[in-house]
Design a protein that fits this description.
InterPro entries: Metallo-B-lactamas, NDM-1-like, RibonucZ/Hydroxyglut_hydro. The protein is an alpha/beta fold and 272 residues long. The chain has helices at 44-51, 65-68, 84-91, 96-106, 183-194, 216-228, 257-261; strands at 5-10, 13-18, 21-27, 32-35, 56-60, 77-80, 124-127, 132-134, 139-144, 153-157, 162-166, 173-175, 202-205, 211-213, 235-240, 243-247, 264-266. The chain has a single domain (5-270), classed as 4-Layer Sandwich (Metallo-beta-lactamase, Chain A), CATH 3.60.15.
């Protein structure tokens, strides 16, 4: 199996898959943009340079190592300002080989290998809510959606009617880390995304299934409301540093299509 697999979403948007995660390349008339850098396992930069010959910026959606791991391959990266402290703290402890173990073994790639690049970037710039990256005929607008992390950003690509939510709003949104935002903040931010619902048709994700119906935002909103009202299934599925991890929807149960689309894994101490 090849380490990197490139596929076209549109004529100017590309997805680069690797074990467990993917990154995106957006190519405008004047320049390009790379969204996330994966684990930092293998030479991602050479793949990107084969996809676009235009100058490009590198943007990190949030401070998790499967998204910033390859940052050192680039001269500078843009990081969400609210994730700054979490990012710098996690750079001190490289946990990638441990958390990648199963994903790599599944695809027959070695775990302890010089293919891992240093996750520390050469330079960091910071961007915030509302920032627009104008590529010329194609643009990405950063929208703050705290929950999975404090500073997670999603991106509206209006010209292609797409919304990238990465890990922020998925079929299995995870909000149980010590650097996650409260579920109440997640709910309020989802309302802001729902206000622009008529501007996108499809949602892009960082992990399988990689893209999903736009109703995923509505589904996450439904489940966060249920959690905050103590009406969800409250099924314990594991723990994080000794704290139980709950899932809002028990997948063994039957729900209508909207409710069945999304789910949230959460910690009870992150409600407010």
């Amino acid at each position: 199996m090849r380490l990197f697999q490139v596929e076209s979403i549109t004529e100017d948007i590309f997805r680069i898959k690797m074990p467990y995660v993917c990154v995106y390349v957006f190519e405008g008339r004047d320049r390009a943009l790379v969204l996330d850098t994966g684990w930092g396992y293998g030479d991602l930069k050479s793949v990107i340079d084969s996809v676009t010959t235009k100058p490009y910026d590198v943007i990190i959606s949030h401070a998790h190592s499967d998204h910033y791991g390859g940052a050192s391959q680039f001269n500078e990266v843009y990081m969400s300002l609210p994730d700054k402290n979490g990012y710098l703290n996690r750079l001190k402890n490289d946990i990638r080989p441990r958390i990648m173990r199963n994903a790599l073994k599944k695809d027959n790639f070695p775990v302890h290998n010089p293919l891992f690049v240093d996750p520390i970037p050469k330079a960091i710039k910071y961007y915030s809510n509302g920032h627009i990256f104008d590529l010329g005929g194609l643009s990405l607008q950063a929208l703050h959606l705290p929950g999975h992390t404090l500073g997670e950003m999603v991106f509206l690509i209006p010209e292609r009617r797409l919304l990238f939510t990465g890990d922020a709003c998925t079929d299995n949104t995870m909000i149980y880390f010590d650097h996650s935002a409260p579920l109440s903040a997640f709910r309020e931010s989802l309302l802001n995304i729902l206000k622009i619902k008529e501007q996108y048709d499809t949602v892009l994700l960082s992990h399988a299934p990689y893209q999903i119906d736009k109703e995923i935002v509505d589904s996450n909103y439904y489940w966060v409301e249920e959690i905050l009202a103590n009406r969800d299934d409250q099924l314990i599925i594991g723990d994080n540093d000794g704290q139980p991890i709950y899932t809002a929807r028990d997948r063994r149960k039957s729900y209508p299509p909207l409710q069945s689309l999304g789910n949230i894994r959460y910690s009870q101490n992150l409600k407010y």
